[in-house]
């Protein structure tokens, strides 16, 4: 059985939904990635109505999405890791 403390990744892309699972996934990725100084990338996707262009300005939803990314970034900082936040509109 592989040793879970022996990290085999250099970069982890973390899907962030804004729920209680976000902090857990950041913690897990941080613990597993710390030995290899892994890069963490937190991604949150904001869905755009099909009738709007993908680059539509949806300020209210973008603010909520930014809070999700900020919380994940803070959780990573508390674990002495850096998380690069990415907001996608799709």
Structure description:
This protein is an alpha/beta fold. The protein is 37% helix and 22% strand. The protein has two helices and three strands; from the N terminus they run E-H-E-H-E. Strands 1-2-3 form a three-stranded parallel β-sheet, covered by helices on one side.
Name the descriptors.
2 helices; alpha/beta; 90 residues
**Uncertain parts:** none
**Total of DSSP H or I helical runs spanning 4+ residues:** 2
What's the total number of strands?
A: 3
Could you estimate the helical fraction of the residues in percent? 25-40%
Main sheet makeup = 3 strands, parallel
Structural class: alpha/beta
Q: Which range does the strand content fall in?
A: 15-25%
Radius of gyration: 15 Å
Layout of secondary structure:
Blueprint: E1 11-15, H1 21-33, E2 39-46, H2 59-78, E3 83-89
Parallel strand pairs: 1-2, 2-3
What's this entry about, in short?
The protein has two helices and three strands, in the order βαβαβ. With 90 residues, it is α/β, with parallel strands linked by helices.
């Amino acid at each position: 059985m592989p040793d879970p403390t022996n990290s085999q990744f250099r970069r982890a892309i973390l899907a962030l939904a804004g729920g209680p699972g976000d902090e857990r996934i950041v913690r897990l990725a941080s613990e597993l990635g710390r030995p290899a100084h892994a890069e963490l990338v937190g991604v949150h996707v904001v869905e755009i109505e099909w009738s709007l262009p993908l680059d539509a300005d949806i300020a209210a939803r973008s603010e909520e999405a930014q809070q999700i990314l900020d919380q994940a970034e803070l959780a990573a900082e508390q674990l002495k890791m850096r998380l690069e936040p990415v907001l996608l509109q799709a």
